[in-house]
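Figure 6 in text form: structure in, sequence out.
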């Protein structure tokens, strides 16, 4: 990510005359990269079936491909007790998510049914997050459209799963705890229905804000070097060790955040679905 950012920024500033002091602002060239673009490193993306292809969609597709690649041999390694370090590591992740995240909240019966979904969500988010750390990569989860789509899936599972488990009518009636005074029932019902929408909204904003915020910090550090370098080359070279050092440090933190945010999104999704399947809990 850092190397591609350097290349993009230098080329952009050179094209706008920023290196010659004509007023090119490095932050104007850096920050647009955290939002979806119709082009990818200078190449305008085509339309597909009449719809514009965005740069983040490239890495969404690549994340799906990576899931198939890393899990291609997992089943054969487990069943046949074969060798394969990557497959064994991925199998360990699956077992951990099953035993520590999904089953405790959903129970074994419902957890077994929904485990493939939550595994797909976790690894899909993980690979999208990690792609933002490689050269010329982008973080699709820094886009609210991506996170909103994932949260919408959680909302659908909450509603459909809850109505299947409790019954269509009983699901909505059970939103309000038993024993509530009749005068307060309508108000609490409205608040509980609003809560069903607020939960996926919180998932959307939490993941998007965390991934966007990390990239903005890295890009801000990099921009400082070019910003000071516009007025004085000496100052630019002086601050460059500090800027690069802090950028590398933030990239290391981002690697941890990439896994953490995938885990948090998956865990909260499991909890929210569990609340709809088991209202008594």
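Output sequence:
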């Amino acid at each position: 990510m850092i190397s591609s950012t350097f290349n993009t920024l230098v080329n952009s500033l050179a094209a706008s005359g920023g290196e010659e002091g004509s007023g090119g602002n490095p932050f104007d060239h850096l920050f647009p990269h955290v939002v979806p673009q119709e082009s990818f490193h200078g190449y305008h993306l085509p339309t597909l079936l009449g719809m514009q292809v965005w740069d983040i969609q490239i890495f969404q597709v690549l994340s799906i491909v990576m899931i198939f690649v890393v899990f291609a041999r997992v089943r054969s390694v487990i069943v046949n007790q074969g060798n394969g370090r990557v497959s064994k590591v991925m199998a360990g992740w699956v077992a951990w998510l099953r035993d520590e995240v999904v089953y405790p909240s959903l129970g074994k019966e419902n957890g077994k049914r929904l485990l493939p979904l939550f595994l797909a969500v976790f690894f899909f988010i993980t690979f999208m997050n990690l792609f933002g750390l490689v050269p010329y990569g982008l973080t699709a989860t820094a886009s609210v459209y991506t996170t909103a789509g994932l949260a919408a899936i959680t909302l659908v599972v909450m509603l459909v799963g809850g109505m299947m488990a409790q019954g269509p009518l009983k699901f909505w009636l059970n939103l309000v705890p038993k024993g509530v005074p009749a005068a307060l029932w309508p108000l609490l019902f409205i608040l509980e229905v609003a809560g069903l929408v607020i939960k996926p909204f919180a998932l959307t904003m939490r993941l998007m804000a965390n991934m966007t915020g990390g990239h903005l910090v890295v890009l801000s550090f990099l921009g400082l070097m070019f910003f000071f370098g516009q007025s004085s080359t000496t100052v630019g070279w002086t601050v460059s060790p500090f800027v690069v050092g802090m950028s590398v440090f933030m990239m290391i933190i981002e690697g941890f955040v990439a896994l953490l945010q995938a885990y948090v999104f998956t865990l909260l999704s499991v909890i929210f679905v569990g609340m709809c399947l088991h209202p008594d809990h």
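Caption detail: The chain has nine helices and four strands.
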